[in-house]
Write a structure and sequence with these properties.
By secondary structure, this protein is α/β, with parallel strands linked by helices. The protein has a single domain, classed as TIM Barrel. Strand 4, helix 5 and strand 5 form a beta-alpha-beta unit. Helix 10 crosses helix 11. The protein starts with a strand and ends with a helix. Bound molecules: pyridoxine-5'-phosphate. Pyridoxine-5'-phosphate binds next to strand 8 and helix 10.
Length: 241
């Protein structure tokens, strides 16, 4: 089975926001990502609006030719925005104001009834709901119980680990990807993936899509966005052969 690449464009917005300019254009970037092999475009509308802005989500919803995956916290404000904009996918993530990036998966087990209500609300707007969780059986079971369609397994611990610990993290992701898929959840994965650590994750046959941002945007500084995306996509496809 094939494997899809979702490109997270948050950090193209970061470059714009640090100087308060109207460039680089997110629309131009997203369309170039799509032309270069992105299967979907991910953007995280954070509560503090540090990179993606409300207007970006609105404009991109119109312009994207693939799919929009809107990452957001499980708050009333975000549910209202998503229900209005209707991206094809919403990925619910935990969010802390002081963090540099999403630090771990959602704790779904501790808030099943809240998450179930949110899944119902989003699905009423025809949005496919994904929950960003750590590779743990109890979290996967809770996601299923809430009616989520997709789980995105957090690869950050794997990405940050080295040697034996990294192999242990990989094994957890492998076992949990198989389990989640066996109970009917689509399995995506992402966070901290680079050209150096993605092959082992892309090899896992149950994983449908990888969402990758920071390393690709960083690599684009040297080789351009088109090449950076093509390099990653080729690596993922080769891993499956
Ligand atoms: N998936 C989720 C749920 C995320 O929160 C992020 C970071 O915004 C990513 C994937 C992409 O992570 P990275 O930028 O490290 O590739």
């Amino acid at each position: 089975m094939g494997i899809y690449l979702g490109i997270n464009i948050d950090h193209i917005a970061t470059i714009r926001q640090v100087r308060g300019t109207n460039y680089p254009s997110l629309v131009e970037a997203a369309l170039l990502c799509e032309k270069s092999g992105a299967d979907s475009i991910t953007l995280h509308l954070r509560e503090d609006r540090r990179h993606i802005q409300d207007a970006d989500v609105e404009i991109l919803r119109d312009k994207l030719t693939t799919k929009m995956n809107l990452e957001m916290a499980a708050t009333d404000e975000m549910i209202t925005i998503a229900s209005k904009i209707k991206p094809q996918y919403c990925c619910l993530v935990p969010e802390k104001r002081e963090e540099l990036t999403t630090e771990g998966g959602l704790n779904v087990t501790s808030q099943i009834s809240k998450m179930r209500d949110i899944c119902i609300q989003l699905k009423m707007s025809n949005i496919i709901v994904s929950l960003f969780i750590d590779a743990q059986k109890d979290q996967i079971d809770a996601a299923k119980q809430c009616g989520a369609d997709v789980v995105e397994l957090h690869t950050g611990h794997y990405a940050n680990a080295t040697n034996e610990t990294q192999l242990t993290e990989l094994e957890k992701i492998k076992i949990m990807a198989t389990y989640a898929s066996s109970i009917g959840l689509q399995v995506n994965a992402g966070h901290g993936l680079t050209l150096g650590n993605t092959t082992n994750i892309a090899k896992l046959a149950e994983i449908v899509e990888l969402n990758i941002g920071h390393s690709i945007i960083s690599r684009a500084v040297f080789v351009g966005l088109r090449t950076a995306i093509q390099e990653m996509k080729n690596l993922m496809i080769n891993a499956r052969q």
